[in-house]
Amino acid sequence: MSFMEINDDLSSHDYMKTDYLHSLQLARLQKTVRRAFDHVKLFRSRMEERGISPEDIRSLEDIRKLPFSMKADLRDTYPYGLFACPLSEIVRLHGSSGTTGKPIVVAYNRHDIQMWAAVVRRAFACAGMTSRDLVQIAYGYGLFTGGLGAHYGAEALGATVIPISGGNTARQLMLMRDFGTTAICCTPSYFNFMIEQGRSMGIDIRDLPLRTGVFGAEPWTQEMRRHIEENAGIQAFDIYGLSEIIGPGVAIECPEHHGLHIFEDLFYPEIINPETGEVLPDGEFGELVLTTLDKEAMPMIRYRTRDLTRIISEPCACGRTLRRIDRIGSRSDDMFIIRGVNVFPSQIETALLSVEGTSPNYQIILYTERGMDNVEVDVEITEAMFSDEVGGLEKLQSKLTRAVENLVGIRIAVKLVAPHTIVRSEGKARRVIDRRER
Ligand code: DLL
After folding, report:
1. 7 confidence band (pLDDT: 50, 70, 90)
2. pTM as predicted
3. Stretch 98-109: mean pLDDT, rounded?
4. 103 lines ligand 1 (CB under 6 A)
5. CATH of 336-435, one of 3.30.70.270, 3.30.300.30, 3.10.310.10, 3.40.190.170
6. How far is the CA of 55 from the centre of ligand 1 (A)?
7. What pLDDT sits at residue 438?
8. DSSP label at residue 221
9. Residue 169 has pLDDT above 80, yes or no
10. Helices (H), 57-206
11. Which end of the chain has fewer CB atoms at under 10 Å, N or C?
């Protein structure tokens, strides 16, 4: 089968009847579990400990009998311990940097690379991109899955790919203007930097042919979307994915922008209570758990993503039958507790961007004060605000403090900082600086 045939066949999967989807999922689940059991020691021994074998998976609900897997499993088996085929069949390795030094390693065989390209192609088509688009890929190319994942998907779509990778922002803007880029893929924080840098170069992105942005790899809020859409004159789509499962292309928004359609024929989603592991019904918030259904080199079974969301099962106006996940507001490990209250960085972003006069550049600093965790939020003000008189700044600060308090429920110190003082990111933004004593 040629590349295009595989792709065309897969696009129809967006509109599958539920019965058909379920039987396809079950057949693929059984195959995946068999493969993992036969070729991956960790999965086999965990299943044996529980007294289950691949034959025990007779319905989709039986997935609940299977043990969870998590990031620590990738670290513990570093580098090749979770591979389900010999290295000679693996055509690509990717990785993601961890906080603890060693990266995690993920593997793809030829089939996986084609499947990935096909699913990213479906994702881009879902965001309204076509073969007529000129796609600037400004996710980093390298071990990070963003660049090459988006690249292969855009090529499979037949679009014209501009593989510029991240960084060199002045050049990004020059090519965007000269080549007439119509779609861009990068992190939302990097795109914000492009808007800002464009202004200082006399380029207003609103005047360019750019019409679509496919942003992901980090959490971003509806307020950030509004900011981007208004300041760049484009439609912004949220794309989700993670290296352990495939990379970008696990889920994406359609033009309805109400949740991200998850490619359920390839990635089986569950939502669990992160404390107890109990599976929650559609609609309830919890931790997203994913099982790959068509990955050969490195199948993942019930992988705990740490990403918090819910499944939206109501039909979507776009006609796709794939269920949706809500925007990933936060990871369970991003949450911090201040004076007994759970605080998520996304709540702070929402509050800050709801007030006129600030820029989307902010940082959340955690520190220890008299043995207790505390937090300060630094936010850059706009140039216009900077030249305003002191009274204006005081008013802005108290407005921001109130906005944060209203959303978070406690008073948090908000500090206004001068324009261009917070480090800009060309990839995933570092929003939280943890200076707590341990
Ligand atoms: O970030 C893959 C990717 C590349 C996704 C480009 C989208 C676009 P990792 O580096 O392994 O892979 O990081 C995965 O990033 O578990 C989430 O916590 C976070 N993340 C990814 N997409 C989103 C999103 C890539 N749209 C981790 N919203 C995931 C919120 C996201 N968080």
Report:
1. very low
2. 0.95
3. 82
4. no
5. 3.30.300.30
6. 34
7. 77
8. -
9. yes
10. 71-76, 110-126, 145-157, 169-179, 188-200
11. C
